[in-house]
Amino acid sequence: LATGFVRVEQVGCAAAALVGISLNLVVGATAMAFAGRDPYPESTPESAATSPARESATPDLDAARVARDATLAAGVSGFATLGHEVLSTRLLVYGFHATTHALAIVLAVFLLGLALGARAVAGPLRRATARPEHMGLALLAAAALSLGFAPSLLQTSTLVEGLRGHHVGWWTWLTVEALIAAALLLPTTFAMGLVFPLAMGFVASSRKPGETVGRAVWVNTLASVAGSLGAGFVLVPALGVRGSIVALTLVQALAGAYLFARHARARRYAGWAGVAGVALFGALWAERATVGAPP
Known about the structure:
It is built from ten helices and no strands. It is mainly alpha-helical. The radius of gyration is 21 Å and the shape is globular. The two termini are 28 Å apart. 41% of the residues are buried.
C-alpha cells in the first residue's frame, strides 16, 4: 500500500524500488545482529517430542512420515497460492482498469487473507490440537473456495463497468475496489493461509527440525516460483483463465484428499468425494464461454 499510494507518486518507480531494497537490507542486517547476540538453543529429541505438533499426533504416528507429508503440503501450498495470486491479480486489476492503486489494493488484500489464516492456526498449534489431516482439510477448503469465487472474479469487469456509470469521488471508488477485492479474495486466501503454518508446525516436530524446516522452506520457495511463472507462461496460454483456475484447484484438491486419507483413514472417502465435486464443478464451469474476462 505504501508503494502504490505514496512512494511511487512521490519519488517514482526507480527510487521506490531502491527504498524497498534498502529496507530489506536493514531488516536483514538487524536480524543477523540479533541472531548473533541471542541464538536459539539447539533442539533436542526431547524438545521435539514435546512440541505442539508432535503432541497432537497419535503415539504410533511416524514423525518422519508426517514431516514428509508436511513438506508436500508446503510445496503444494506455495505452488497453488502464487498461481492463484497471479490469476486473481490479473482478473481484478483487469476489471479495475489496471491502475497502480488497484494493483496495490489487490496485493494487500491477498496478503491480508494469508496473514489472517496464519494467525488463526497459531492457536491450535500452540494448544496441541492441530492434527496432520488438518493440512488436507485446509487444502480442500482452499480448492473449493477458489473455484467457488472464480466465476465472480471473471465478472469483475462487468460489475465495475456498471458502477462506473455513477459519478463518485476518487476515494469512494478506491473504497469500492477494496471492498470488491476483500469480498472475492479474503475467504479463499484465509484458507490458503492455514496450510503453510500447519505444515511448518509438523515439520518442526521432527527429530532434526533444522534440516526438515530448511527443506520445507526450500520446497515452498521453489514451488512458489514455479507457480507464479507457470500460471503466467504455461497455464494461461495453454488452458485459458478458466482452465488455469480449474487446474490449480485440482492440484490443491488432490493433495488435500491424499493428505486427509493418509491421516484420517476412517473418513478417507470424504476427501476423495471433495476432489470429485471440485473436478465435476470445474469441468462444467470451464466449458462455459468466458464473459467479460481477459484471454
